[in-house]
Amino acid sequence: MKILITNDDGIDSPFLKPLAETFAENHDVTVVAPRAEQSWIGKAMSRRGTVEMETHTDFPGPAYSLSGTPSDCVNIALAHLCPTQPDLVISGINIGHNAGLSFIASSGTIGGALEASLQNLPAIAASMYLDPEAFRAVSQRDKALSNDLEDHLVHATRILKTFASTFIENHRPQYGQVHSLNFPNRNLDQASIHKARTARTLSSSLFERDGDQFRFAYKPLETLDGDEDPTDRNFVHQGQITHTIIDYSTIDQKSYK
């Protein structure tokens, strides 16, 4: 297969190259990712100004970084950088989960996959839950991944590769659909993939005030669901892998019934 990979954590994300390397074992991979982190940006695109490109030679195939958003990366890649149209677009693996509607609606990882699906291409978004300490360390690039986390990540990329192959064999592209996978932070040998609905996470204050300035300060979000409901959030916290189909093409269906 020909595969385009993007993310929202940036070209230097420690989760990006292992994903590209795993898929490059069997497929033709092109990487186009933001130059800097673009988390919590959704499907924003750079309407004003110019988007600048740099070429990277340390990936197993063509690789570029852009001074734009994940959606910019996919849009520009499909029109200008991919030699031929890819068979699949993968966005991720995101540092942190994207389980629950509040996360999905805000996620640049989901946004990059959505841009592909709006061009009628198969699109997968992949994310990994991390405990707060590991999340901070990985997000801030404080140090190299621990051996355990690196092994866990590589295991996740191999599960994702198997899922992607089966997905392409059994699914035709569905306009507006993003297939979102969330990986847990513990033993994947004991995990299986569960179809899950989106958790109803409540958005709340995400900014701290300092006089006339406000700074983003994430706080855990509450949910309207019970602990036993079959949601992406609950499954991933139970150590399972979740598969949620986010279908933007059905947004207006209830309005016309």
Would you give the CATH topology?
Stationary-phase Survival Protein Sure Homolog, Chain: A
Looking at the structure, what is the overall shape?
A: globular
Kindly report the average pLDDT value: 94
Terminal CA distance: 40 Å
By CATH's scheme, which homologous superfamily applies? Survival protein SurE-like phosphatase/nucleotidase
As for the number of domains, it is 1
Describe the structure.
The strands form two sheets. This protein has a nine-stranded mixed β-sheet with strand order 3-4-2-1-5-6-7-11-8, sandwiched between helices. Strands 9-10 form a two-stranded antiparallel sheet. The protein has seven helices and eleven strands. The chain is globular, with a radius of gyration of 18 Å. A hairpin with a 2-residue loop joins β9 (about 205-210) and β10 (about 215). It has a single domain (about 1-195, about 235-255), classed as 3-Layer(aba) Sandwich (Stationary-phase Survival Protein Sure Homolog, Chain: A). The chain is an alpha/beta fold and about 260 residues long.
Question: Which SSEs are present, and which pair or pack?
Answer:
Layout: E1 2-6, H1 16-24, E2 28-34, E3 53-56, E4 63-66, H2 70-81, E5 88-95, H3 101-106, H4 108-117, E6 123-128, H5 132-139, H6 147-170, E7 177-183, E8 193-195, E9 207-210, E10 213-216, H7 232-237, E11 241-247
Helix pairs in contact: 1-6, 2-4
